[in-house]
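Hello forum,

I keep getting stuck at the same step: I have a sequence, I want structure tokens, and every attempt I make locally crashes halfway through. Rather than fight my setup again tonight, could one of you with a working pipeline run this one for me? It's a single chain of 429 residues.
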Amino acid sequence: MEEYAKVLNIAIPFFLVLISIEHGVAVIKDRQVNRLFDVISSLSSGMTNVIKDVMGLSIIIISYGWLHDNLAVFQIESSLLLYLLAFIGLDFSGYWIHRWCHEINVFWNRHIIHHSSEEFNLSCALRQSVSEVFAIFTFTYIPMAVMGIPPRVIAVLAPLHLFAQFWYHTRLIGRMGWLENVIVTPSHHRVHHAINPEYMDRNYGQIFILWDKWFGTFQAESPLIPPVYGVTRPVRTWNPWLINYMHLWLLVKDAWRTGSWHDKFRIWFQPTGWRPADVAAKFPVYSIEAVPPQLRYHTHGSALFYIWTVFQLLLTLGLMMYFFKVIGTLEPVHILLYGLFLFVMIFGYTSLMDGSALGMIGEGVKACLGYFLMATQSNSWFGMESVLFFGNQFMLAYLGISVLVASYFYFLDRPQEDFLPVAKATVMA
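Reply #2:
Ran it on my machine without issues. Output:
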């Protein structure tokens, strides 16, 4: 946990620099690839995911260590071959997990957040799930366990395998020659994120595109079919918490409402998007029927609200990185409460971006929790005064001012829901 937090504090600035470079290149090329609230929502989603991971809020049904200890047949000496086999094994496992998350109703809830952006850019790569509470796919590591690949090797390579999937979430890189036949490229992944019928549920590979070609799920990007991004049931919110659980909530409601006991049980394992006929007729859910055209979700606010929201994002990011820095010194209860504070903080300002009253509720809960935490720490924010002069005074003032500012924006200068036409799409050559 502490080691992973240290890695993240190195990786996060690197990701932010690449996102900034992508935006700068897009501006120079006169290409629109980023919208402010969409980027904030993506970064906020990424923060919820890494905070959950660092806090260890996952329940592992079967650990890889147990599989290795009980199933290992071979013992490979530490070498380049060992790490190569482990990396290939992780990618093979990743292909099938990714595919099942797209094809099975209940597992889509673990992945909808990643596809929820109606843009395609580096920031949307950070839209990762916070709803993966149960680690149920460890059985896909059985081939690696049989080969005797040690758990320590998996522990080292797993974050690298995940980080290596960041770069190809971009519209600014075209086709990459012979590499298109071996690895996942931006062209391949644009297809994967598209909701065009020709592109849906294709290109599940994470590093190697070979799995898709071997298992029949490959689709090349066509110059005649520019990708349109998002999900066919648009999420229409910037709040990553709502996005993470909206599909599961729909499944729960549908299972409750249907009059068929058979459907109550099978809805969870039907193809993604399937609904009982009686429920679909009585409780229709909006779905995009024609691609294109499509209207993208948008809210617009005043310049002052944009400034405030960016400030909230940056402050949350700073508090999160400080959390990762000191997590090894905190008691378990304080780790839990600090993480909860950050979760509520993100819930509050992203709800306010929607113009929702949930933003006010989030701000109120955040202030109460924040003052409680400082009271238990003798008016200190977990020793912040040792690294930032007036840091504690700043937090005391911020918690109260934030509620007042949120009230102003909600009652007097509230963001308004709007919809934008799909930006003119192109296929990179």
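The beta strands are 59-60, 134-135, 295-300, 416-421. If your local run keeps crashing, start a new thread with the error log.
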